[in-house]
From TrEMBL:
Name of the molecule in the record: PRC-barrel domain-containing protein
One Pfam family it belongs to: PRC
InterPro entries, alphabetized: PRC-brl_dom, PRC_barrel-like_sf
Residue ranges annotated for the PRC-barrel domain, each copy included: 5-68
TM annotation in the entry: none
Organism (species): Candidatus Magasanikbacteria bacterium GW2011_GWA2_46_17
Length: 102
């Protein structure tokens, strides 16, 4: 599947359980290896809050959306808090939490 950059930069980002995190507005590339390092996501066009989603957080990308692992969302957080916290997906049963940049 192919998708152009203009469409990619408008993709909504959801968790596996359907919580909308926001929309992709920028991508960070590592030039030498030609790889994506992070997806920059905002709740809305006017929002100043920026979420950084690393490729390891992504479960799937389709032409209509990006889906991240539920482990990305802190367990028990409110919906507003869920959009502010990201974790590494569970690796061997352990998930590590980290605050994303705003």
């Amino acid at each position: 599947m192919f998708i152009n950059l203009q469409k990619f930069l408008k993709l909504p980002v959801y968790t596996e359980s359907g919580v909308k995190i926001g929309q992709v507005f920028d991508i960070k590339f590592e030039i030498e290896s030609h790889t994506i390092v992070a997806y920059h996501v905002r709740q809305s066009f006017l929002s100043r809050s920026t979420h950084i989603i690393k490729p390891v957080h992504v479960k799937e990308i389709t032409a209509k959306r990006i889906v991240v692992y539920d482990a990305v969302i802190k367990a028990g957080a409110t919906v507003s808090d869920k959009r502010k916290r990201v974790a590494e997906p569970e690796m061997a049963g352990n998930a590590t939490m980290r605050e994303i940049q705003h």
